[in-house]
Amino acid sequence: MSRLQAEHLYKVFGRRPDDAVRKLENGATRDELRAEGTTAAVIDASFTVDEGQIFVVMGLSGSGKSTLLRMLNGLLEPTAGSVRFDGQDLTTLSPKELRRVRSQKISMVFQHFALFPHRSVLENAAYGLEVQGVPKAERQKRAHEALELAGLKGWEKSWPDELSGGMQQRVGLARALATDADLLLMDESFSALDPLIRRDMQDQLLELQKTLKKTIVFITHDLNEAMRLGDRIAVMRDGRIVQNGSAEDILVRPSNDYVASFIQDVDRTRVLTAGAIMTDVASVLGSKDADGTEISTAEQFRAAAPATVTKDTPLVDLFAPCSASAVPVAVADAAGELIGAVPAQKLLAALGEPEPQAQDAVAAVPAQPAPEDKKPVATDEAAEDAASEDTDGKDADESKVIAGA
Ligand SMILES: Nc1ncnc2c1ncn2[C@@H]1O[C@H](COP(=O)(O)OP(=O)(O)OP(=O)(O)O)[C@@H](O)[C@H]1O
Ligand SMILES: [Mg+2]
């Protein structure tokens, strides 16, 4: 089982980080530490990502997302806490062992996947395998397969600058897939793409994930992207994970005002499903159908209902049937068994903004912060840095790569 487990992870930048962790454990705030000149980038983060799951991390700029991600593959050493993958504690490995794990089991896809401009698409896709020392024939074969998975069959001999931005990003994805790594770390990987291409890449990732069943951690600023991709979503604020749950948990039961204000712009009709808002079939019994006849059995309800849907049907598809009849929409399971009902009032109520669960009054924040406008570069050096994911222990920060031109 390629499960990823982070436990009580801390990352503090600045002098005497261990002291800072002790202070945080004793209740010090991030601001108090900042006054002393240290930055608590990640504070006490714990979570588990199972094989086949996509774990999305969301949060404002500076909330600690990239720092968290880079501790997961050992690019950054945690100040405290542990990261276990495949049963191995990555924080206890020697630099050499860590490099081996990183080149074989973990792949990273950045926002701007800087490709080597003087290498063909095929050679770019094969790069991770080259780092692993895979013989040429074998790595070309696997790169071919990965390109096909990423929808780039036929482009193997092209140069990166002959590809659109979306296609270049696919080469980045193919490079990550070619290595057979079980853990995929994606930092704003689709953020630089046009909305349509971005949606296309999201679909492709979901489609690939059905068969590949990787363990994926995906960082995004985009709520709709988070809701589409995430089996679980963690919301970060000032270094802490303030909520970790399914899209539905976060939409229906935001843990505080911060999360509530974060989600206010999400298109709830496409994220929430009939299963999330349905009531018991029993609640319909005793009501009247369109002709005024009492509905007294489940079968009568089914016959009178304007439509029968599954629990996974998005709310957006319930409006038409709900407006066509006063009888609730019926919900059935895969076997056709009635499992619930969606009355029109429930549907309308679900569109309102939920109250936060806990009384954690915080200032409202802008709902959808714009990601920083980072310009891609594609120098060999930059690509090397990004692609090698730091093969000699120094910090291969993608933002440096991006700013490095
Ligand atoms: N190498 C470093 N040295 C000092 N401080 C750092 C370093 N890297 C990150 N930080 C600080 O840690 C905090 C979290 O940064 P991080 O890059 O993890 O945020 P982020 O959530 O990824 O933001 P963005 O959405 O802008 O990418 C910030 O306050 C940042 O300034
Ligand atoms: Mg970041």
UniProtKB/TrEMBL annotation:
Start-end of Basic and acidic residues biased regions: 391-405
Biased composition (Low complexity): 355-367
GO molecular function, one term: ATP binding
Compositional bias per record (Acidic residues), positions renumbered to this chain: 381-390
Pfam family, one: ABC_tran
Residue stretches making up the ABC transporter domain: 4-263
Region Disordered: start-end pairs: 355-405
Keyword terms: ATP-binding, Nucleotide-binding, Transport
Family: Belongs to the ABC transporter superfamily.
Protein name: Glycine betaine/L-proline ABC transporter ATP-binding protein
UniProt source species: Streptomyces ochraceiscleroticus
